[in-house]
Specification:
single chain, mainly alpha, 191 residues
């Protein structure tokens, strides 16, 4: 049964770069196979393989479509790392768990923050703001400081980046209103 999951990977290997879309499909199917096997066998190792194949399949899919947006790569990878950290909460010591969570959150928020800082598009700023607020709320609900700290830091970074961009384009009234709104959001998230 385990070797059955290797056939899509072997097939993807032999197809090469000419058929990246097919390779992505093979990798995603192999990740599904291994995810189901991990649940049935209750095996974390097989689950890790499923997560790695899932991310490889997504990355191959986005590369095939010439998508270079870091959010397509960083958000799923960050969520995978956070998921693995949460699954291994009992096996990891507090420092290892904190490091894994921090790395996953950095991938998650960093991929969005890059677009905000480089392009300054409001869509990217909105995605980063929503992700940050979700992280803060999740951290408060689960009493996990890493989620609260990273979410708050990237929310502040998001608001400050937009303030600087708008401050350069608009008069002082709009940036002042945004500062007050950002402060209110930050105050509510910490309260």
């Amino acid at each position: 049964a385990v070797s059955a999951g290797l056939w899509p990977v072997v097939g993807a290997w032999f197809l090469g770069d000419a058929r990246l879309g097919t390779t992505a499909g093979f990798l995603l199917l192999a990740s599904l196979h291994y995810a189901l096997a991990a649940v049935v066998w209750r095996s974390l190792g097989v689950g890790y393989l499923a997560g790695a194949l899932f991310n490889a399949g997504l990355w191959t899919f986005w590369i095939d479509r010439h998508q270079i947006d870091p959010q397509y790569y960083g958000i799923p990878f960050g969520l995978t790392v956070i998921g693995f950290a949460e699954l291994n909460k009992k096996e990891l010591d507090e420092a290892g768990l904190g490091l894994a969570r921090s790395f996953g959150l950095l991938c998650l928020y960093g991929s969005s923050a890059y677009q905000v800082l480089v392009y300054g598009d409001l869509v990217y700023a909105g995605v980063l703001g929503i992700l940050s607020l979700i992280g803060v709320v999740a951290g408060l609900a689960r009493e996990e400081r890493a989620y609260v700290y990273f979410g708050t830091a990237f929310l502040v970074l998001d608001v400050l980046a937009q303030l600087v961009r708008m401050g350069l384009k608009l008069n002082i009234v709009v940036p002042l209103a945004i500062i007050l709104l950002g402060g209110a959001i930050l105050g509510l998230s910490l309260w």
